[in-house]
Structures are given as C-alpha cells and as structure tokens.
Amino acid sequence: MNQQIGLPPRAQRPWWRDAVTYQIYIRSFTDSNGDGKGDVEGIRTRLPYLKALGIDAIWITPWYPSPQKDHGYDVADFMAIESDYGTLADAERLIKETHEHGLKLLVDIVPNHSSYKHEWFQAALKAAPGSPERDRYIFRDGKGVNGELAPNNWQSVFGGPGWKRVIEADGRAGQWYLHLFAVEQPDFNWENAEVRAHFEDVLKFWLDRGVDGFRIDVAHGLVKAAGLPDIVAVDPHAEMLAPEGRPFWDQDGVHEIYRQWRKILDSYPGDRMAVAEAWVSPASRLALYLRPDELANSFNFDFLGSLWEPTILKEMINRSMEALAEVGAPSSWVFNNHDVVRSVDRFDLGLIAGKADTTLERQGDPTKFNVLRGTTRARAGALLMLALPGGAYVYQGEELALPEVRDIPEDRLTDPRWAMSNYTDRGRDGCRVPLPWKADPAGAFGFSSNAALTPTQAWLPQSPWWGLYAVDTQEGHPDSTLTMYQQALALRHKEAGLGDGPMTWIQAGESVLAFSRPGDFACYVNFGAPIALPGNAQLLLSSGPLDGTMIPTDTAVWLRLAAGSLVNQPD
Ligand code: NOJ
C-alpha cells in the first residue's frame, strides 16, 4: 500500500506531518516550587531532557486558572495561567526557550465547556432565563409539571445525569444546564456568536505569544443536534463516549468552526496547527476533520484502542491510512495519554482503551498482570508506532515504560469519575502519578525541588516501587526503555524514509506485522513464536534482546534490508 506519493522532502513539508509530540501532563511533570504539583518553570528546567529524548514538539495539558475539578479541563479563564503553575511571564519564557531548543509547543484549548467559576457562568447563574448571559451556555426548562425532570436523557461522560438544576434569584428551583462532563464543567452554546468570537480571541492570544498550535479538547462535541433530542435506540449501558447515536458528538456543524480556526492559524507565520481530540468512528468520519482547510492532526484513537493483536492492529492501520489518504492528511499514532490505562498494562491484560475505564477494569483481571510481558509488548509497540507513516504522540512516562498505578489509596483518588460513578470507577489517576526522575525517594523521587517532600506527599501519591522506573536509573543504561526511545527517535530523524510517506506491507506470516519504508528500511513486529531475521538484513534497533538470529515473541526490530530483497513482494 503506497500513500502520499509525491510528498515533498521532510524539510520542505509542514513539521506536523512527521513530528513526534510529547504530552506533558503539567501537574505531574516537574515541581519547581516545592508544593507537590508540577508547574511551568518545572517544564522549562526539563527542556534539555526533552531535547535529548529526541522529540520534536511538546503539548502541555491545560495550564489555565482552574478550580481543578477535572485537573485543568475546567477552565476559569482561557487567557491566563493558573497561579499554582506560575505566571504568564513564565509561560512566555517557556515558549521562547522551547523554540531555542528547536522544539515546537502546543497548548490545550478547551472549547466545549468552561469551569463553573468562569465569570460568564457565574453571570449566567445570576441572570434570568432567556437572558444573553444564559445563552452562552445550554440552559433549558425542565420537563414535568414543575420542571422537575431533566430536559432530556443525556448522561455525563463521567457518570450520572448530564444536567443540573439551578436555583433562581427568587430562591426557587429553576432551569437546568447541560454538563457532558463534571457538574462543574457547563457546556458552552456554540450557536452563540459571543462564544465563537471569544474562542477566536483565545486562539489569537496564544498565537501572539508564539505557540505553534493547539490540542483541541472534545473537538467533536462542540455542536449539539438541534432541539437537543433524547438519545434513542442505544444500549442504556453503552458508554457515553461511543460515537454512534449520540446527538452531541460529531455533528456536521463542527466543521465550520474548524474552517474558521484554520484561517486564523494560517494568518500567522510558520506552520501553526491544531490537533483534534475527536473520539469519532469510522476513520472516514474522522478524516473529515483533516480536510485541507480544517485541522492538521487528529489522534488515531482506533489505533490506541487496538488490542495487542496483529490482525486488529493491521486492520486499524489500513483503515486509517486509506481514510486519511482521501484527504491528504498524515496519521497521528498514539498509544497513551492521560485518559487511558497505560499501554504496559493494556497490552498485557488485553484491555481496550478508549472505552470507559470501568470497561477496562471489567475486561482484564489486574491481579493477573505480568509487568514483564506488558513492558516487552509496550516497547515493541513503540517501535511499531514510530516506524509507521505520519506523526506520533508520546505521553510522559511512556519513555520510561511506566505501568498504571493500581494501588493509589481510595481516599487519595481525585478523578471526578470516582465520585460521579458512585465510587465504582477508580478513574484515570493511575496514569497521572508524578514522574519519577530519581531513584532516591527524596523530593518525591526527584519530582519536586523540595527534598523534604515524600512520595506520598506529591499531589497524587507515588507508590514505594515507583523509583524503579526513575529517569536517573534509565539514563545511559543500554537496555532501558528510555535509551530505546532515544535511539528510535534519533534514527527517525536520520532516516529520510521515516515520518510521513509511503509504506509497503511485507508478507511475513499471520503473527507478524512487517512493512518497509523508503531507503530499504523495514520494521518487523513479531507477536507469535520466534521467527528468523530476514536474510542479509542489518539490525538497526530492537525492542528487546534477539535470540541469535531469531526475533523472539513480542519483539520489534528496525532493519536495513539488503537492496532489492523486496522485489516481488505482494502489496
Ligand atoms: C478530554 C480530556 O482529555 C479529559 O482529561 C477531560 O476530562 C475531558 N476531555 C473533559 O474536558
């Protein structure tokens, strides 16, 4: 299968067609002021680490003022910095120094909802039904004789009803407002011109400060179906993020918004871009967000949701490549982010990411978790992902092969999913634990500048075994996962055939995913019994030790094939 034939050389195409972007979950990355929470200055001190890792760009999760009911995805002011994380001056300095390191910087934009503390929502609460203040959000009268029933049957993604009733100025129970996420995250009304204009100003505010682009939160959710119809004919237990039959996901009206945003991005110098967080299926629907006059990237969640299984992965890869080729867009491969169980655990337990975490827990038995097998697979998965055409997104700690933390005490869980699911879904805290920078537990394993801070005093507690994964243990160690990522990313820069461009499948058996890229480069991922390395191939990198000339189970290799060895391979 060949795509993107006629693509200009890497140096001449927009950076976002090839980039590996590193996701920084700011609260858990590095704490520079000793308060147990990560911050902007902490990120700045780690720029040399990120540069040495070999990534091309960073994406910082929301750093705006926020009551932190959903750790920053509840924004109180879109044009300022959370005081716990620093100041606008700190952010400007970080943007400048990131560029000095030759890296790009993306910020998160959260246009589907605000925090209940946002001045617009506070004004809406005080204003009367039907007022312009209320029209910026989605307020409706309730059903029933006294309006005591929610306006429709929409649920919150985090669990429970998607509507909350407010008390009006006269002290009586009144209208309801929509919150597809936490109660403290009221949904904006994107039919309202002021909302549209405000977000255009927000984009310009950050573009003026030099950011290279935006990760768009819930990009598929901004526009709701006219009349807010009930969800019908859907399994009531099916979860809310499912794209089918939901009158609030992937409505055609969202595309007009992104066309307008693209015009703004293009009005700035450099290849400014936006990446959509859009849980949309099938791939052909997702591709619509990537039409030439819309967004640059969209996370490939079908790939993230695949099991560690060659047939499924191959199908996901083929489907996305075909759909994206239709619109001329690159794929953005991703296996991890701050919302899903880490791939080390998923690939071992057979968990499916991208469904509600309750589903995850139900599918696998965490007590059977085999960390070695999970790590082996996650490492092989990384080499698969980084060899595929297009760009990739790496989540902090993935380069350390961090597993999910399953032993956070219940009274320390902070994800709103925990309470909103009636304490049945532990939520996403397990992939958000502050990074271990040092094996020594002082300063929460080097996460904090405050040496007196113990691992359990970090904002999310670190388990005693967390230091086993520390950066300082892995740095310079030939077999560590960190070293493997550094080598893979360095090779990716050197190999002109990697990043965006064509790929060709190589037939190597049912339990093997193998493909070549220009320059006689090949990636083999073996999911089954050991197989022999192809003849005369030069080994460039492997995800684990080889057994002589055999590629063991759950191992990936990058190879330089003998010239001409691919002739007559079926596509
Ligand atoms: C997606 C974000 O990644 C997630 O962390 C957040 O809870 C929801 N959107 C709501 O903003």
Main features:
binds 1-deoxynojirimycin, 571 residues, alpha/beta, eight-stranded parallel sheet, 17 helices
Task: Describe the overall structure.
With 571 residues, the protein is α/β, with parallel strands linked by helices. Helix 11 (343-349) crosses helix 13. It starts with 19 loop residues before the first strand and ends in an 11-residue tail after the last strand. The longest helix is centred in the middle third of the chain and has 18 residues, at 310-327. It contains 17 helices and 18 strands. An eight-stranded parallel sheet has the order 9-8-7-3-2-1-11-10. A five-stranded antiparallel sheet has the order 12-13-14-18-16. The chain has a three-stranded antiparallel sheet with strand order 4-6-5, with no helix packed on it.
Helix % is 25-40%
In the predicted model, the low-confidence regions spanning at least 5 consecutive residues are: 355-364
> What is the total tally of β strands?
18
SS field, number of helical segments = 17
- Based on helices, strands and strand pairing, what is the structural class? alpha/beta
Give the CA-CA distance, first to last residue: 6 Å
Largest sheet features: 8 strands, parallel
**Structural Rg:** 24 Å
Mean pLDDT: 93
| Cross-sheet strand order for the largest sheet | 9-8-7-3-2-1-11-10
What general outline do the C-alpha atoms trace? globular
Percent strand: 5-15%
Bound ions, cofactors and other small molecules, one mention each: 1-deoxynojirimycin
